[in-house]
Amino acid sequence: MKKTDIIILTGFLGSGKTTLLKQLLANDLEQGKKIAVVMNEIGKISIDSNEIQEDVRLKELLNGCVCCSMKDQLEIQLLSLIQQNELDIIYIETTGVANTIDVIDACTSSLTVEKMLLSGVITTLDASRWFSKDTLSPAYRLLLHQQVMYSDIVLLNRLNQLNTAQGELVLKELKSINPKIITEYSIDALVSNISHQSKQSSSIPISASSSLKIKTIVYEMTKPISKQKFEHFLRNAPSSLLRLKGYIQFTKDPTLYNVQYANGFVTYEKELMKLPMRLVLIGENIDETELVSELDQLS
Ligand SMILES: Nc1nc2c(ncn2[C@@H]2O[C@H](COP(=O)(O)OP(=O)(O)OP(=O)(O)O)[C@@H](O)[C@H]2O)c(=O)[nH]1
């Protein structure tokens, strides 16, 4: 069964996410694709939702961020969207202050990965915002940096608001963080580029999933594994492995555990529901063959 593509739109406040989304939706609808949008807003009301066409399924997550307080709601909304509709693409428009890794984490649970595939992260970036980033607080500066770093495509706009030297400096800095910076794009050119490539693949071809900046690996377990070996695996995991989560069963213990690993720490919680033993691993340039082979040896 073809999985529904998930495309995450990130970008700082006012950087052009909704403007881009509207263009992408118009293009997809013209091609007859079945689309849904999950729109996340920090505030209690969404202004941008009114801008979404009627034939697009829309879910709003308001008053919080899907990268933190609303993580669980995102999973629930995604699952309900695909249960009720046959969809080609789900766009997730994040709040301007969302942490990219945490959004990826939130939309790749061990339940969603069965039916959905993360197809990429697109970031919109205002060149003048980047140029004046030193006026932001350290936390927002870091956020902006990470939005660029973890994106599969960065769409840079408003470059014409800077002079030539400033523009060159911005580009040099950005390209040292992420070479996939697209500048001077007009939405028309971008959309026609997407349309052209979409004829070959069924979704927005940001890149093949194997070459995404942040990769998600799904590991299905057929039998319980050794807890001792699993913890040894985690202790020796590469630092590029950012997250591991899912449901796991250990040898000589009938309990199913919800396992969560991040920043070198692992936690287990008893899971009462009968869920598939499946792990999701998220990381930057992680080697799937190597990790899967190591996991295979844990039983
Ligand atoms: N010059 C220029 N302006 C743009 C571009 N994209 C969006 N804008 C304008 O920037 C403003 C904010 O655009 P939005 O698309 O609402 O930005 P957003 O990232 O969704 O904003 P928030 O949801 O508030 O974070 C609007 O006035 C847009 O018309 C662009 O590529 N170039």
From TrEMBL:
Signal peptide: none annotated. GO terms for molecular function: hydrolase activity; nucleotide binding. It catalyses: GTP + H2O = GDP + phosphate + H(+). One of its GO terms (cellular component) is cytoplasm. It holds the Pfam family CobW_C. The keyword Nucleotide-binding applies. Residues 214-299 form the CobW C-terminal domain. Keywords: Chaperone, Hydrolase, Nucleotide-binding. Belongs to the SIMIBI class G3E GTPase family. ZNG1 subfamily. This is GTP-binding protein. It comes from Gottfriedia endophytica.
